[in-house]
TrEMBL record:
Catalytic reaction(s) noted: a lipid A + a 1,2-diacyl-sn-glycero-3-phosphocholine = a hepta-acyl lipid A + a 2-acyl-sn-glycero-3-phosphocholine; a lipid IIA + a 1,2-diacyl-sn-glycero-3-phosphocholine = a lipid IIB + a 2-acyl-sn-glycero-3-phosphocholine; a lipid IVA + a 1,2-diacyl-sn-glycero-3-phosphocholine = a lipid IVB + a 2-acyl-sn-glycero-3-phosphocholine
Annotated positions for site Role in lipopolysaccharide recognition: K70
Pfam entry (one): PagP
Annotated catalytic residues: H61, D104, S105
Lineage: Bacteria, Pseudomonadati, Pseudomonadota, Gammaproteobacteria, Enterobacterales
GO function terms (MF aspect): palmitoyltransferase activity
Protein name: Lipid A acyltransferase PagP
Keyword vocabulary terms for this entry: Acyltransferase, Cell outer membrane, Membrane, Signal, Transferase
Top-level enzyme category: transferase
Organism: Dryocola boscaweniae
Cellular compartment(s): Cell outer membrane
NCBIfam families assigned to the protein according to its UniProt record, in alphabetical order: PRK11045.1 (NF008271)
Length: 189
C-alpha cells in the first residue's frame, strides 16, 4: 500500500469508530445513513476539488464551567496547523477530510483527524459568502490520556467568504472538564 491508501484506511478506521459496524448490515434508516456517510467519505477522498490549509485560531474554556485557577493556567492559543482535502457536492454542501495538530489546554501537542460535513447556505446575493452547520467525526489523542486514540463526534459551524472559512466546534463537558470552544481558519487552494 502507498501512503495515500494507508491514510485512507486510517481515516476510514477512525471514522468507523463513530458508528457500529452493524449499521451496514441493518436495513432501513441506519443502513441508508451508513451508506451515505461512507459514500461521502470515499468520494471526498477519491475526488477532492480543493486542498485545505488549517490554522488553529482560538481555544476558549467556558468561564462558567471552570474554576478560575484552572482557566488561569490553561493555554488558549492553539498554535499548530493542518492539511486536508475537500469538495462541494451538487447541493452546495461542504465535505472535508483533514488532519490537524495544535497545542492543547496544557500546551501539549494534540492531533485530530477525520471527516467533516456542513450544510451550507448562501444567504446574500453575493455567492462568495457562506454559512455552514454540520458535524465532524474522527479521532484525537492527548498527552494527559497517554495519546490513546479517542473517537470524537462534534458539531461544526462556519462563516466564510470565497476560499477562506472560519470554522468552529464546541467540545461539551462537565464542570472543569470539556466545555471548550475551538476555532480555526480553513483556506482552500
Amino acid at each position: 500500500m502507498n501512503l495515500n491508501n494507508n491514510l485512507l484506511v486510517l481515516i476510514l478506521l477512525i471514522t468507523s469508530l463513530a458508528a457500529p459496524a452493524s449499521f451496514a448490515a441493518e436495513q432501513g434508516f441506519f443502513s441508508k445513513t451508513w451508506d451515505t456517510f461512507s459514500s461521502n467519505v470515499s468520494e471526498t477522498w477519491s475526488n477532492p476539488e480543493h486542498y485545505d490549509l488549517y490554522v488553529p485560531a482560538v481555544t476558549w474554556h467556558a468561564r462558567f464551567a471552570y474554576d478560575k485557577e484552572k482557566t488561569d493556567r490553561y493555554n488558549e492559543r492553539p498554535w499548530g496547523g493542518g492539511f486536508g482535502q475537500s469538495r462541494w457536492d451538487d447541493k452546495g454542501n461542504w465535505h472535508g477530510i483533514y488532519l490537524m495538530a495544535f497545542k492543547d489546554s496544557y500546551n501539549k501537542w494534540e492531533p485530530i483527524g477525520g471527516y467533516g460535513w456542513e450544510k451550507t447556505w448562501r444567504p446574500l446575493t453575493n455567492e462568495n459568502f457562506h454559512l455552514g452547520l454540520g458535524y465532524t467525526v474522527g479521532a484525537t489523542a492527548r498527552d494527559n490520556w497517554k495519546y490513546i486514540p479517542i473517537p470524537v463526534l462534534l458539531p461544526l459551524a462556519s462563516v466564510g467568504y470565497g476560499p477562506a472559512t472560519f470554522q468552529m466546534t464546541w467540545i461539551p463537558g462537565t464542570y472543569n472538564n470539556g466545555n471548550v470552544y475551538f476555532a480555526w481558519l480553513r483556506f482552500q487552494f
